[in-house]
Amino acid sequence: MNKIRQILIFLDQGVSQRKIEKEVRVNRRTIASYLEKFKSTGLTFGGLLKLSDGDIDEILGLVKEM
Fold this sequence. Notes:
Helices cover about 65% and strands about 0% of the residues.
């Protein structure tokens, strides 16, 4: 499973960023950055989870244009 999707699942469940950091092994600053970008979409975490991995990556700015 994609780490970003795992982070979204944990956020949807109300898990703390500290716990997510330990479970997924992603720095809390990165998680906080993702959280801000997720919030800026206006979608719920559940709504974001319905998107494809590619769409989520695009929201986070992880997709490089060719």
